[in-house]
Amino acid sequence: MRTVTVTQTLPGTVYEIEQRWYDTSRWTAWVEGLRRVVEVAGDWPGVGSSVTWDSGPAGRGHVVERVIAHEPLAGQTVAVDDSSITGRQSVAFVPVDDGVEVQLSLAYDVKKRTMFTPVVDALFIKRAMATSLATTLSRFGAEVGSHRSLAGP
């Protein structure tokens, strides 16, 4: 599996950041490529629950994220499956002096492999995955900042 990780420090408490992250009704505002949430099943964000979502036409298609680990106020790991990859995506919420460090990682395998897959992955896919995670985390940071400014000090 290849792994990509991005990190961003956001203002607020772990509780505030975690609540925003798990609010699937807001995912279209910040999850890169997500067009609509199709279904939330089970006791989200707990182990065994899942979220199914669809991307736009140029995106990942139909994506299923099933929770395989969850620790309140610490983070979550989901098994991810779409038409191109399988993997595990983890989010961690780490308190720091000036807020919360959000760490987002994706360990993935490309489903349709050829002899060229390792080269294509190294040159294009891994970079695209890292860009997608960074975009998601940046948009999430903007969402958190917007919510905090509307809520006041």
In short:
It is built from three helices and seven strands.
Topology:
Elements: E1 2-10, H1 14-21, H2 27-30, E2 34-41, E3 50-55, E4 62-71, E5 75-81, E6 85-96, E7 99-110, H3 117-151
Antiparallel strand pairs: 1-7, 2-3, 3-4, 4-5, 5-6, 6-7
What does this structure look like?
It contains 3 helices and 7 strands, in the order E-H-H-E-E-E-E-E-E-H. 18% of the residues are buried. It is 31% helix and 42% strand. It is an alpha+beta fold and 153 residues long. The chain has helices spanning 14-21, 27-30, 117-151, and strands spanning 2-10, 34-41, 50-55, 62-71, 75-81, 85-96, 99-110. A hairpin with a 3-residue loop joins strand 5 and strand 6. It has one domain (2-151): Alpha-D-Glucose-1,6-Bisphosphate, Chain A, domain 4. The N and C termini lie far apart (43 Å). The model has no long low-confidence stretch (mean pLDDT 89).
Helix content: 25-40%
Query: Strands of the biggest beta sheet: in what spatial order?
Result: 1-7-6-5-4-3-2
Question: Uncertain regions: pLDDT < 50 for 5+ in a row?
Answer: none
Main structural class: alpha+beta
What descriptive keywords fit this protein?
153 residues; alpha+beta; Alpha-D-Glucose-1,6-Bisphosphate, Chain A, domain 4; seven-stranded antiparallel sheet; 42% strand
